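Why does residue order matter? Because the sequence determines the fold. Keep that principle in mind as you read this record.
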Amino acid sequence: MSELPVVVIGAGPQGLAAAAHLLERGLDAVVFEAGTGPGAAVAQWSRIRTFSPWPELVDSAAARVLEPTGWTAPRAGYPTGGEWVDAYLTPLADALGERVRYRTRVTGVSRRGHDRVVTEGRDSAPFVVHAIEHDGRESAWSARAVIDASGTWSQPSPAGADGLPALGERAAAAAGVVT
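Structure:
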């Protein structure tokens, strides 16, 4: 199983940084991104300025992956989402190359040869990741581990306690009050 890649779900800031850390540790990574490019969720708020300055938005392992390309980290200022994508996430995804697969939506993750009931040997079995590729083709990938960095932008967590929607939250969302 050690020769299998680690699958990272999501090519946003956390997913791309995770891939950079994996590479530094000598582990192969494959990043699946449902969007058409890196930081697809960030790109949806591209005109909004971040609350964090550049030095806090650049991961150290990612900077080391980018260093051989001649990339230099911005030192000051608060970028917009679009600037963050253009000046950091896109160059990082480019440096990771073919490890990043766009328009690939993960549809399921499980353990090879095991159902969802705890069974002997399940914890040592490789993961199997099902995905739908950009052309509609279904694929299955074996992985030594899976990192879910897909975020909550398109599937926000409920506001209520216990991981459940607050009373009235569904009705408010249906009415367009909460998105």
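The chain is about 25% helix and 20% strand.
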